Amino acid sequence: MALTATIGPSIDRFERSLLSLDRVSLEKQIAPNAINLNPMDFVDMIVVPALERIGKGWEDGRVSLAQVYMSGRICEEMIDKLLPVDHSSRITQPPMAIVVLEDHHLLGKRIIYSALRASGFELYNYGQMDIPTVVNRLKIDKTRILLISVLMLQSALRIKTLREVLDKENLDVKLLVGGAPFRYDDQLWQEVGADAMGANPAEAIRWVQKFTEMVL
Ligand code: B12
Fold first, then answer.
1. How far apart are CA 74 and CA 21, in angstroms?
2. For the sheet containing 196-197, what is the strand order?
């Protein structure tokens, strides 16, 4: 069967298993050879759309917040198992870091972090931070490229303030942003003063390569 024909049903099955907290079925679905996708594509084509549907279900009142929460937690564990975090040769690069800015949605950051590490990039994992803390860390680490992951619109809009602080303090840092608000509004990254936005791990890697060439 063609791959595209199997994607829709695979997302359905994955979503159903998440909502019923069926870990046994989920383990089977992520087993090697269960579907003809590499782990990063599996995350991007199955896990992310399934979680998006669950979020939509919550908005429509079909799914409880507890189900959203547990789905997120289970996916966190699975992503840890699925995605590699290392690569044998590291790439020469300026200091770079990834952060979740004033938000509690962590999965996107985890995926992007793993994807970059697996592609040979070394980067600081700042975890969740507010603006003063992140600015402080950027100074200490002399970070030149900052990847920011947010899922709340409110958090996305805070990037504008971060950019203002960076400008005021003369800190030359490239900002690469990503997360749901930027995928829903393709102008938002410019409005918040970012240098670029990436919709998935492949775009994150492409932009980081570009910024590395510009900054080095
Ligand atoms: C799971 C989930 C949660 C979990 C999070 C668990 C965790 N540990 O992360 C829990 C239950 C904790 C949660 C809580 C809340 N949530 Co929530 N949540 C979701 C949900 C269903 C899925 C998010 C997710 O993990 N997706 C999978 C990840 C992998 O996708 P992603 O982050 O988009 O990442 C991909 C790309 O965007 C990109 N990417 C991500 N980051 C970056 C960074 C860079 C640099 C690049 C290049 C790319 C990139 O690459 C990734 C892989 O492709 C979304 C629905 C949705 N549409 O997104 C709602 C959603 C984000 N949540 C929402 C809300 C409102 C909340 C709560 C306020 C609910 C409440 N009333 O308490 C709280 C707030 C928490 C907080 N203070 O931040 C809203 C946000 C609405 C808005 N406009 O701001 C959404 C959109 C649901 C909805 N439709 O209303 N949530």
1. 8
2. 124-129, 96-101, 145-149, 174-178, 196-197
pTM (global) more than 0.70: yes
pLDDT, tens only, 166-186? 999 999 999 999 999 999 999
Q: What's the Cα-to-Cα distance from 45 to each of 42, 142, 166, 214, rounded to whole Å?
A: 5, 35, 35, 31
Alpha-carbon radius of gyration of the chain: 18
CA of 150 to the centre of ligand 1 (A): 7
Both tokens assigned to 122 = 């070394």
63 lines ligand 1 (CB under 6 A): no
Question: 155 pLDDT band (50/70/90 cuts)?
Answer: very high
Listing DSSP states for 6-39 in one string gives HHHHHHHHHHHHHHTT-HHHHHHHHSTTSSSS-H
Q: Which helix (H) or strand (E) holds 129?
A: strand 124-129
- CA–centroid distance, residue 162 to ligand 1 (Å): 20
Whole-angstrom Cα distance, residue 179 to residue 11? 20
Cα-based distances in Å from 24 to 7, 20, 30: 20, 11, 10
